[in-house]
Amino acid sequence: MAGPTVLVVEDEEPLALLLRYNLEAEGFDVETVARGDDAELRLRESPPDLVLLDWMLPGVSGVELCRRLRNRPETATLPVIMLTARGEEDERVRGLAVGADDYVVKPFSVPELMARVKAMLRRAHPQIVARMLIAGDLELDRETRRVRRAGREVNLGPTEFRLLEFLMQSPGRVFSREQLLNGVWGHGVYVDERTVDVHVGRLRKAINRGRARDPIRTVRGAGYAFNEEFSAAP
Ligand code: CA
């Protein structure tokens, strides 16, 4: 399965391109449509996971389109984030009144918009939560097998990926080397316990790269844990 799909309805081409670029960098599948009426037709086919909807559009306006989406059972609960221009405060209220789930004001900060998109998807599609393991600035996508730190892709070998996934699933829990061997390499596989240290070392090197905060905690005489405080502190 591909990543979550976002439909961008925006008639300003540079902005549509900027959104596409950033959403794709986050692992989303992106479609862009420049007209409200085209978007309405597109949304009658198969609904995406989320819509970024510009306020002022040729064809059918964003507000009118949002109202129509809410009136159709197939799209009544489709997550919609409206993009509005500065100084349209009254219209923002109207946007929410017609059923938009959220709005951002242009010119917006791209990281903030990405954070809102992700937060909304987590609320609307809990299966994406199961798919994504997120702690602090670290994200692991089980389906695409991708890991990102602060939005930048981290290249991990398959063992390091499984090791990180295993640790992130149980933040705070300390695993012995033997437990890690069983959980990551599999039962009955003979690997020296020092192999665990080697792979933890590689994993740390890849995900930390000059960063001060290490999400993996070494517990002397016990093993390793994903530091549960990593999510909380900035
Ligand atoms: Ca526009």
Keywords:
234 residues, alpha/beta, Arc Repressor Mutant, subunit A, 9 helices, binds calcium ion
Explain the overall architecture:
The chain is of the alpha/beta class and 234 residues long. The protein has two domains: 5-128, 3-Layer(aba) Sandwich (Rossmann fold); 130-226, Arc Repressor Mutant, subunit A (Orthogonal Bundle), CATH 1.10.10.10. 42% of the residues lie in helices and 21% in strands. It has helices at 13-25, 36-45, 62-71, 89-97, 110-124, 126-131, 158-169, 177-185, 194-208, and strands at residues 5-9, 29-33, 50-54, 80-85, 102-106, 132-135, 138-141, 146-149, 152-154, 216-219, 223-226. The strands form three sheets. It has a five-stranded parallel β-sheet, with helices on both faces. A four-stranded antiparallel β-sheet has the order 6-7-8-9. Helix 4 (89-97) links the parallel strand 4 (80-85) and strand 5 (102-106). Helix 7 (158-169) packs across helix 9 (194-208). The chain is elongated. It starts with a strand and ends in an 8-residue tail after the last strand. The model has no long low-confidence stretch (mean pLDDT 88). Calcium ion (CA) is lined by residues 11-12, 54, 56-57.
| Spatial shape | elongated
Head-to-tail CA distance between termini = 32 Å
Q: Total helix count?
A: 9
Helix content: 40-55%
CATH superfamily placement of the largest domain = Response regulator
